[in-house]
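Hey, quick one: can you model this chain's 3D structure?
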Amino acid sequence: MNSVTTRKITKDDKEIFFEMSRDFYSCGAAHKPIPEENRINFWKELVSGNFITGYIIEFNGETAGYALIAFYASQEYGGKIALLDELYIKPAFRGQGIAKKVFKAVETSGIVACRLEAEPTNVRAIKLYESLGYEKFDYIQMSKKIKGKSGE
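Sure thing. Here's the predicted structure for all 152 residues.
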């Protein structure tokens, strides 16, 4: 039987996480590749555990991917929301139901809703999300990058 497990990312996972993150940001699932400095700065936040939790996904004992989840509260939804910020499954492990199992774990973690983003060109991911009951919103998501003290 195929076994999917998750465990929290630790400092020892830096190299494997960076390798998978580089692939995630270059394979079309994300808006564009990111500077390595961003990855390094994010790593510090990730291992601090203050704002986001990272998980290594294993399939039959092998590293198959990762998930990054941030939690927040929403008055609109009436409780705790999970923002599935990134879900990456290595190409060799895709199509085996791993992502569906990750979604089930997230959705049964005491939250009232799960939100995510997808690039419009990531048709395969969107098809998966819709098959799991996720729906598209008709509003625009916006952001503004704020420069940090280091002059980023």
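One thing worth noting: The longest helix spans residues 36-48.
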